[in-house]
Design brief:
Blueprint: H1 4-20, H2 27-34, H3 39-45, H4 48-73, H5 77-94, H6 96-107, H7 111-136, H8 147-167, H9 169-190, H10 194-208
């Protein structure tokens, strides 16, 4: 069980990442936000990087858990995109993806942060992979789609759109609209009759050689 002090430090690190960014994180700032002595950062975690790793894992796990039930209800690719929109709106309010984005920024030059950010992304990718396995199973696309790779592409795209919105909200909105139209197209493909489905599979096989 995580001690009260450790949990306060983790929560303070999450909030500091969200409000100050990776460049604003220090043992002093996090300790001040937690209302504890700076030495306790090193006592409980050994280093600020290890505290940030714990904070990243906690933040991602909380957000994945919050959306697990919604993901379990997804029954089509278009609905997965709808769930993504809902998640996008929720994350904009909570700043959960902002924490992950800041970790990714820090990871560019810090192997410890890189491992932590990768683990947080993997939590999202694993959840999305389960949805894709369910909704693509039995469709013509399943045979030719690398579902684990696609799940990671979707996760990366989601984080990218969150970052994009900070610089260009209109552009981020256009990206979401384009994904929604792609969902409509995939929905049409899913509804093809048996003859058209066989033709599509044959065409895809030829092109994948």
């Amino acid at each position: 069980m995580v001690s009260d002090t450790k949990q306060r430090l983790i929560n303070a690190a999450i909030e500091t990442l969200r409000t100050r960014g990776i460049t604003g994180v220090s043992a002093r700032n996090v300790a001040a936000a937690a209302g504890v002595n700076q030495a306790l950062v090193f006592y409980h975690f050994g280093s600020i990087d290890q505290l940030l790793a714990a904070a990243s894992a906690t933040a991602a796990a909380r957000r994945v858990e919050a959306f697990r039930e919604r993901f379990a209800q997804v029954d089509s690719l278009r609905d997965l995109l709808a769930a993504g929109r809902e998640l996008h709106a929720a994350e904009r309010e909570t700043g959960g993806v902002a924490v992950l984005a800041q970790m990714l920024a820090g990871a560019q030059h810090d192997p410890a942060l890189s491992a932590a950010a990768s683990a947080a992304l993997e939590l999202w990718a694993t959840e999305i992979e389960q949805v894709l396995d369910r909704v693509l199973g039995g469709t013509p696309l399943a045979e030719f789609t690398d579902i684990p790779g696609l799940a990671r592409a979707v996760s990366a795209a989601f984080v990218g759109i969150e970052l994009y919105e900070g610089a260009d909200p209109q552009g981020a909105g256009a990206a979401l609209e384009a994904l929604d139209r792609l969902g409509v197209l995939l929905e049409v493909l899913e509804g093809l009759g048996p003859v058209a489905t066989r033709a599509l599979r044959a065409n895809l096989r030829r092109r994948s050689r």
